[in-house]
Specification:
Layout: E1 4-8, E2 11-25, E3 28-42, E4 49-57, E5 62-63, E6 76-79, E7 92-94, E8 98-112, E9 115-126, E10 132-143, E11 149-153, E12 159-163, E13 166-170, H1 173-186, E14 194-202, E15 205-213, E16 220-224, E17 232-239, E18 246-252
Parallel strand pairs: 2-11
Antiparallel strand pairs: 1-2, 1-10, 2-3, 3-4, 3-5, 4-7, 6-8, 7-8, 8-9, 9-10, 11-18, 12-13, 13-14, 14-15, 15-16, 17-18
């Protein structure tokens, strides 16, 4: 079942798969879109045909400046150049090779529950017969995740708001970084062992917690004060190799 249509230059595609990735950072939703489309091309050998795929996507989440899905309706996000003022790129286009989108506009036409209708236009790089730019235009539907993850990027701050009356603070991030630097030097990935302390502040009351890392950065257990009314746990750690971002991804029931 098609999820929309896409044109690239004078070529027509059917959108067959769409994905959306959503993060909550300090009570603002960050969104990344991923679109897969295909068209049927005749081969030179007889009448045999095959599907040629295209991918249009973001490799970083951009700030929507809204707090909930319903507020997305009617919003428009414009990139006049390859990057916006936050340093987030306008997107990537994969035909034969991955190339940059040099400008784009994303307009949220409709919101129905957790489903978006999106209109995305722009100019993308292609590499079919020498590099060049081609205009693209696509309208598609995409399903947003029912549960939003909560992200704290300690490259920016160590304390964020999860809701109007709930905050999260990571306490001894320097200890975590020292252990990370030690492992980077030794390359003994399974020897990563540390405890990252944090606290949840809910309704003015502080609830202590800790994340115990044992035998690897991806192997951890979250321990939170039983009295805390918020069920919060670490889901993932995503650290850029240049420390451009240091994201701790939490989920909450």
């Amino acid at each position: 079942m098609t999820k929309g249509t896409l044109t690239l230059g004078d070529l027509f595609y059917d959108v067959y798969e769409t994905r959306a990735f959503v993060e909550n950072q300090n009570m603002e939703l960050y969104l990344a879109l991923d679109v897969y489309a295909s068209f049927r091309v005749k081969c030179k050998r007889g009448d045999k045909s095959y599907l040629s795929d295209l991918q249009l996507f973001h490799d970083n989440n951009f700030n929507t400046h809204v707090t909930c899905y319903e507020e997305l309706k009617g919003k428009k996000y414009v990139w006049e150049n390859e990057f916006n003022e936050d340093g987030i790129n306008a997107g990537c286009l994969n035909t034969v090779e991955y190339e940059s989108v040099m400008k784009s506009t994303i307009e949220i036409l409709d919101v129905n529950g957790n489903e978006l209708t999106v209109h995305w236009t722009g100019d993308g790089g292609v590499y079919w017969a020498g590099y060049g730019l081609e205009p693209f235009d696509t309208t598609f539907t995409v399903t947003l995740p029912e549960k939003v993850t909560y992200v704290i990027d300690v490259a920016k701050c160590t304390r964020v708001k999860l809701s109007e009356n709930t905050e999260l603070e990571l306490l001894n991030i320097d200890d975590f970084r020292k252990e990370s630097e030690r492992i980077d030097a030794t390359r003994e990935w399974d020897d990563f062992n540390t405890v990252l302390k944090f606290k949840v502040i809910h309704g003015g009351t502080e609830y202590p917690g800790e994340i115990v890392f044992k035998n690897g950065m991806k192997k951890f257990t979250t321990v939170l004060d039983d009295k805390c009314p918020i069920a919060l746990r670490l889901k993932d750690v995503n650290i850029h190799y240049t420390k451009e971002y240091e994201k701790f991804v939490f989920e909450m029931d």
